[in-house]
Amino acid sequence: MNKRTILMAVCLFSLCAVEAQQVASSPDYIKTLTSQWKGERFEDGRPKVSDAILKRLKNVAIEEAWGYLRGHGYNNQYEGDWQIIHPDSPMTGRVVTAQYMPLRPDFKEVVKIQGAAEKRDTIGGSNSWPIEILQPGDVYVADGYGRVIDGTLIGSNLGNAIYANSRNGVIFDAGVRDLGGLRNIKGFNGWIRGDDPSYLQEEMLTSINTPIRIGRAIVLPGDVVLANRFGTIFIPAFLVDGLVLSSEVVALRDQFGFQRLREKKYTPGQIDTKWTDAIKKDFRDWVDAYPDNKLPMTRKELNDYLNAHK
After folding, report:
1. Domain count, the chain
2. Using one digit for the tens of pLDDT, what is the confidence trace for 57-109?
3. Secretion signal: which residues (predicted)?
4. Range of the structural domain that residue 268 is part of
5. How far apart are CA 25 and CA 13, in angstroms?
6. Residues annotated as binding site for Mg(2+)?
């Protein structure tokens, strides 16, 4: 093979690589990232975790979710130290990711051209692109490398657009502007690094629905997020059902233990260590008498779990 042929092959490979590089990940790539999920998916490839599970997840403690994930080898899913728009309102949802970087003019032009090829709105700022694809129940999660001054990804206009599309909010390793206006959007919430009156400048969107880093956590598109006043935790979609059920059973065990301690039937040492067979039987009898309409899970889910974890 002569040098000219080799050069032509290299150029052709390079051209294919450029054409294949999209702003937003392809459905096939997202399916590869989330291959352990076996359920329904969105058109963009993200796992479609049920609304019912998202609702139940709101009652799970961050510590319970953290412990469950650690037990399955996922040690880098939590991030804290947030400014929260409405601290008393927990949020759960399916993650749409976006990555921002310091502005570089030549790269920005490439992103703009590729965005136009993907039929994205190139008249306004590219920070509107992730918002345009949000579905009900989504949470917009963005890596803005912690920048607040000149790193305000949204103000109240885009905040209203986010809520209109997702009925949810945002988690930004970055800042926002017009915090007063964002606070007034009923139902909207946000976990942010700070607020500032400056506009977004010297910063650019580089990708949508790719793996990103939020503080010390790694986040994939299609993860499920639990966010409350104690932090944020990003859960692989294929683990969320088991995590929710396990946490709900732990909550029932705690309720049983607190009741028995108040009744002085057992000592703290008996409840706070591995249960004897007698306490396990007492708990099972207590659970069997628990009203079905007050259980967070179905009776079948509970029985199947208890039978598998005797």
Report:
1. 2
2. 999 999 999 999 999 999 999 999 999 999 999 999 999 999 999 999 999 99
3. 1-20
4. 240-308
5. 20
6. 178
Count Cα atoms within 13 angstroms, Cβ side, for 173.
22
Q: How far apart are the C-alpha atoms of 113 and 119, rounded to whole Å?
A: 10
CA dist., res. 189 & res. 192, Å (int): 10
Do 125 and 274 belong to one domain? no
Structure tokens at 55: 């609702």
Cα separation, 265 vs 259, in Å, equals: 9
> Where is the binding site for substrate, in residues?
155-158, 177
Specify the pTM.
0.90
- Any idea what the CATH number is for the domain that residue 62 is in? 3.50.30.40
Residue given tokens 């103000």 in the structure block: 155
Q: 258 and 202 share a domain?
A: no
Q: What are the beta bridge partners of residue 102? A: 203
Are residues 115 and 142 located together in one domain of the fold? yes
Say if residue 177 is in the same domain as residue 264: no
Compute the distance between CA of residue 176 and CA of residue 193 in angstroms, rounded to an integer: 8
Binding-site residues sit at 155-158, 177-178
